[in-house]
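hiii so um. not sure if this is the right channel but i have a protein structure encoded as tokens and i wanna go backwards to a sequence. like what aa goes where. can anyone help
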């Protein structure tokens, strides 16, 4: 690009040649691109050919009067800054010219510095107004982009199959989508603005959203809960906090997922398992009985190899029966039913009884079993006694099974401020960290060189977890491969 293309175009309209030439010289040195005209008409024509950013205009010229020229320039080129140069300026003409939109005055005769100063001021003003116009345009564009973005987001949120509701810290709802309304049975056109409780029919879900809105929930996990609607649908609510830079709660986003289909499937699966297990139990028990009779009454084949086969068949049948029993226990627990009605239970007695029942098994393996109880009696619990027995039977049996011979198994119970804490610790094979979260899943078994000779179903720990959850308690594991495992059970003292 020619450097002159970037120069500011200035037009000088004056009938005095000396003034025109003088201005041209001074302004060209300032970096302007100067055009000149000797009268008003020629000046207007020159402007049509090339618009000027700044016009120096003599007021008194032969032909068209300067004020008229000014008027026409303001009409055709309102952006151009007009500086009046005249020797005949009176206050009246000055006011008149300013009213018509002149930018400034230079009285004739003027010094080059005076001209430079006035023109420079005009050019600066020009630059500022160009910058302002650019900023204005950018702002307009950003706003329109934001508008497009906003409406795009609104469309996406409206089209989501998940229910979405956004609250402020005070529980006021600021956004909700049609899927949310449909899930909770609201009019799909419901408007935000009211309190959370008018939109969400489940008090516990409201409570969760309020807590999260205030930033009171644990920030690492997304708190969630399940609730049912009046038309028997299961909804899973997950609340995510909206936090400012200082971590202060600005509100929450509550997402609802309809999990009814999963629940139905789960129920069908449980019913199926329960039915199949039930059907399997009686024939298996009959086979076991017959095998036991056959082996016990001497009616079994004399050939030792054949007798061995029958012994093996009896073992396998016994294994199957305990598998079926575990399956039935689990589906009963998942249905919310226990074994017995809750009653007063003294945990010390339960722990002693379970340890006694496993003592022969432990002795065969050479394990030492220690029960460490506090001097003060533990507070009584109200719980299903068979459920509690099953919890500690599973944990202690696992400690025996997953330890090499001659291990040490310690069961410690403590009263810890409103809760009873029981630890079942062994020095056995241990569990790799990445598998520790999986062992509470149904049918999961750790498979390695050490565990391959241990028979089991992978249902013991899920039963432990289900029983404890139904009692309002919990179970956790800490383990190090090769060093041992500790399961910690927490039970709320008093009424479970
Ligand atoms: P099962 O013992 O019938 O396989 P569980 O549900 O009781 O089923 O246990 C699941 C898995 O967790 C086991 O297969 C075993 O690998 C691991 N496990 C449980 N308890 C222990 C323990 N005390 N030490 C090492 N591994 C254990």
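sure thing!! here u go:
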């Amino acid at each position: 690009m020619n450097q002159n293309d970037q120069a500011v175009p200035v037009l000088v309209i004056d009938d005095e040649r000396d003034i025109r030439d003088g201005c041209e010289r001074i302004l060209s040195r300032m970096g302007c691109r100067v055009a000149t005209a000797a009268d008003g008409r020629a000046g207007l024509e020159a402007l049509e050919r090339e618009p000027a950013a700044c016009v120096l205009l003599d007021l008194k010229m032969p032909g068209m009067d300067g004020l008229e020229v000014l008027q026409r320039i303001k009409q055709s080129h309102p952006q151009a800054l007009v500086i009046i140069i005249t020797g005949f300026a009176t206050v009246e003409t000055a006011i008149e010219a300013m009213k018509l939109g002149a930018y400034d005055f230079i009285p004739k005769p003027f010094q080059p510095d005076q001209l430079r100063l006035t023109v420079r001021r005009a050019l600066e003003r020009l630059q500022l107004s160009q910058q302002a116009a650019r900023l204005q345009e950018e702002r307009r564009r950003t706003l329109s982009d934001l508008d497009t973005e906003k409406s795009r987001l609104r469309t996406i949120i409206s089209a989501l199959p998940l229910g979405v509701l956004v609250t402020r810290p005070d529980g006021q709802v600021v956004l909700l989508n049609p899927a949310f309304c449909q899930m909770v049975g609201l009019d799909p056109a419901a408007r935000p603005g009211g309190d959370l409780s008018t939109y969400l029919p489940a008090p516990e879900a409201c409570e969760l959203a309020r807590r999260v809105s205030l930033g009171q929930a644990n920030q690492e996990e997304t708190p969630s809960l399940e609730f049912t609607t009046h038309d028997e649908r299961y909804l899973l609510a997950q609340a995510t906090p909206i936090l400012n830079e200082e971590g202060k709660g600005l509100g929450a986003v509550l997402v609802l997922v309809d999990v009814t289909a999963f629940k139905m499937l789960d129920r069908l699966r449980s019913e199926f398992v329960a039915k199949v297990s039930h059907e399997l139990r009686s024939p298996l028990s009959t086979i076991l009985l017959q095998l036991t009779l056959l082996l016990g009454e001497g009616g079994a084949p004399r050939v030792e190899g054949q007798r061995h086969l029958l012994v093996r068949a009896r073992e396998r049948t016994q294994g199957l029966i305990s598998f079926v029993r575990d399956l039935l226990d689990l589906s009963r627990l998942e249905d919310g039913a226990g074994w017995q009605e809750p009653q007063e239970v003294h945990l010390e007695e339960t722990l002693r009884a379970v340890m006694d029942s496993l003592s022969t098994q432990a002795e065969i393996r050479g394990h030492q079993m220690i029960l460490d109880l506090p001097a003060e009696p533990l507070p009584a619990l109200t719980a299903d006694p068979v459920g509690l027995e099953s919890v500690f039977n599973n944990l202690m049996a696992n400690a025996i099974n997953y330890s090499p011979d001659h291990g040490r198994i310690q069961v410690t119970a403590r009263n810890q401020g409103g809760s009873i804490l029981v630890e079942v610790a062994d020095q056995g094979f241990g569990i790799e960290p990445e598998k520790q979260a999986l062992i509470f899943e149904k049918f999961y078994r750790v498979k390695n060189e050490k565990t391959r000779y241990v028979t089991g179903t992978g249902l013991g720990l899920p039963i432990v977890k289900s029983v404890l959850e139904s009692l309002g308690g919990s179970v956790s594991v800490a383990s190090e491969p090769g060093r041992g495992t500790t399961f910690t059970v927490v039970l709320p003292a008093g009424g479970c």
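oh and The longest helix spans residues 112-159.
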